[in-house]
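INPUT
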Amino acid sequence: MKWAAALVAGVALGACPAKAVDPVASVHVVRDGERWTADYRFHRQAPVWVLAVSPLTRVKPRSFRPESWVVETPGVRLERHGWYDVLVADKGAMPSRVRVSFRPFTEDIETAADPALGFTDGSVALYSVQWKVLPARSIEQVKAYPLDVAFVPESGAPTSVTLSDKNRPVLFDGKRVRAAKLTGDRETYVLFGPATPVETPALETILDPQLPGWFKNYALAQLPPILDRYTKLLGPKPDGKPTLMVSWNGPTKGRASFSGSVLPGQMVMTLEGEGVVSDNPKLRDMARWFVAHEGAHFWLGQQVIYSDVKETWITEGGADLLGYRTVAALDPKFDVRAAQQKSLDDCIASSRKGPVATAIERQDPKAYYNCGAVFGLVAEKAWGGDFAAFVRELIARNRADRTVSRTEWLDLLDSRAPGKRLPQHIGFLLDNPVLNAQPWVALLEAGGIRFRLRTDGTPELL
Ligand SMILES: [Zn+2]
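OUTPUT
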């Protein structure tokens, strides 16, 4: 049986909105029973409108729109050019209003949040940014656009999105409202239909009613305590309680799949396949780790973020270590030492290929997770074994600009371990490839982390 798993963090559209920019278009998305429509109003004249979020499906890679969208306005077509779907007129200028009807598309998208989550009671959650459009001068121009929409001209110009249901209020930010109005390309899922959240002190959970019972019980019993623990250790989230939505695509033959993605304040999971109908320990562990790592980002990643992508080790390594400690605190059977040893071994292997800071240039993002978790161990030790206290301090000191730079992280570490030259050790590893494990051994020694040397000279944590 094929085990498919995909984890995606939300596309960073307008991650740091500097100031409000006028929308280039607005769209009103309406559900009326089985019929779904999206009415566009373009606020500029342009011959081509580019759908800014045009990812491919994971299975049989293809755009999701040709099979789920119908352009109802005569003389307007949906086409694919380069990396993007576009709306274009048969001839001449595009009309300023265009109507599309659509079927919510619930298949897995590998590189972005899924356009829709389907629940078996008829509820549907829609991903708000799928309607974002950008004006273009020509098809030729679109063909030359890069895959990363952040580098497309004017990609920061937002589309205002309003979502409503003719038959009942929609669920938006934990509240039922007549219409969800989203500006500034805000990314979220808005829920249509009767599904009701289960409230716990630190997490709001929306589970498909048909989910296999064992998973429902597991999710409600084991996942909220993870967020409870973060809230206790790191303080309440200033933007309110996060939501976890779990949808169920049915017991498809020969499949066992889990996919998840994360948006600000929201985690979504989709389960599918006969392989998850009865208790499945692997799925339990995946779901738990997903919430432990991604939930940590609601603090380390949203309340503060790194200043440069080369500092991803601050957030990814930090979320891994917070996750390890949290899972270990909630489950005495979790082998936390083995998890940390794997981080250390994989980190040392990555570090032989090049400096940790530039791992992204070598397509080795895991180096940030693994080596960042090792740097985290050093900070944890300096904080008397309390990594959450270090993170709490990191957030408190950097609340004003919500940014933690490498220097700020290292200075904070140094303040609790003066004279140990920990910033120098870590700085060396960030900036240099290492031929053997020696500089890592030196860091563990300086940091007071207990280990023994294996015969090949690599450290084994004690
Ligand atoms: Zn992460």
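end of record. The longest strand covers residues 255-263.
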